[in-house]
Amino acid sequence: MGRYKLLVVTALTAFGLVWPQSVPTPAEGGVVPCTDVRGCPDLVVDGNRFNATNRTENFSTTNCQVVEGMVQAGTRRVMRFTFTTPNNGPGDLNVGAPSQHPDLFVFSSCHNHYHFRQYADYRLWTPSQFATWDQLRTQNPTMLAKDVLAAHPELTPVAGNKQGFCVIDIVNYTPLAPSHYGSCSNDQGISVGWADEYISSLDGQFIDVTNVVNGTYVLEAEVNAEHVFIETNYTNNRTSRSVTVQNRGGGGGGITLTATGYTVSGQRKVDLVWSGATGTDVDVYRGKVKIVTTPNDGAYTDSVASAGTYKYKVCLVGTLTCSNIATVVF
């Protein structure tokens, strides 16, 4: 995986990583127990290292990322980012050997080592959906992310498909802090004062945005989203940042849309015609507002009340897979 160890020469307070003076009570849940006599781990995501870039990449059918289902073969537009998780707790995260947790690990024959399957979640949101999501998470601090999403099917982030992680000490956040975990095969974990890190160039360290329409979004990363291992605190496991999707050529999700405006008996009409959409229905947006879910028959006529500029897009139902923006002016 090209993992490495790195000393971070910076004040802990620059990241808000101040070690507790007392041992907190561990949060509930988790199948990886808290075993350190000093207390439980507390993982956070370092937002200062959480930077994203858009890239165009070619993936062959034999590429491990294709073989393991992280991305489709071919030319794809991806948003890559670095994901760093310091242990801010009084005790180590001690996962142990993959053989001790066969339910949590899968052996990757392509990468030739074990992968921890439930370490992190990556999500790309529209700003309005993220605002709703963030409020729901704040209101339900003990609810698992997957359960919040299941209870609110109207929330449809684009998810990353990274299949596995090797959880070990990579970045040193506290000078002289001992490192106890360095083997993906024999002893995984994160020591106090250390962080695991996945730099943006690693396999699967991206979200595929090929079919996402250009625009501003919110990129979110969450560590231990399913509370697989016990921590002192789960409410600080997320970070997010505003990002821009820039798909070259300005296209969307393979859907081509045209819009024609005209006036009949004083009423302003817009004929929308599209091709390339899959599924039985599509969502039609005027500006940022979904105005209708309509059969995917390639045509829809909208009515607008007043003069102005109107921008339309057509999306696969409940997704961010959308057409180009088509504009009409009255």
Per-chain topology:
Layout: E1 6-7, E2 52-59, H1 64-67, E3 74-81, E4 83-86, E5 93-96, E6 105-108, E7 113-116, E8 120-125, H2 127-139, H3 145-151, E9 158-159, E10 171-172, E11 188-190, E12 194-198, E13 206-208, E14 215-223, E15 238-245, E16 256-264, E17 267-275, E18 281-286, E19 289-295, E20 299-304, E21 309-316, E22 326-329
Parallel strand pairs: 1-10
Antiparallel strand pairs: 2-3, 3-13, 4-12, 5-11, 6-7, 8-9, 8-14, 10-12, 14-15, 16-17, 17-20, 18-19, 18-21, 21-22
Total number of helices:
3
State Rg: 23 Å
Q: What's the total number of strands? A: 22
> Which residues sit in consecutive blocks of at least 5 with pLDDT less than 50?
9-26
Strand content: 35-45%
Can you tell me the overall shape? elongated
Number of domains: 2
Which structural class should the secondary elements be placed in? mainly beta
Order of helical and strand elements:
EEHEEEEEEHHEEEEEEEEEEEEEE
Helix content: under 10%
Termini separation:
56 Å
The overall pLDDT, averaged over residues, is: 86
Going across the biggest sheet, name each strand in turn.
1-10-12-4
Largest sheet: 4 strands, mixed
Structural overview:
This protein folds into two domains: 6-245, no CATH class; 256-329, Immunoglobulin-like (Sandwich), CATH 2.60.40. It is 7% helix and 37% strand. It contains three helices and 22 strands. A four-stranded mixed sheet has the order 1-10-12-4, with no helix packed on it. The protein is elongated and about 80 Å long. 37% of the residues are buried.
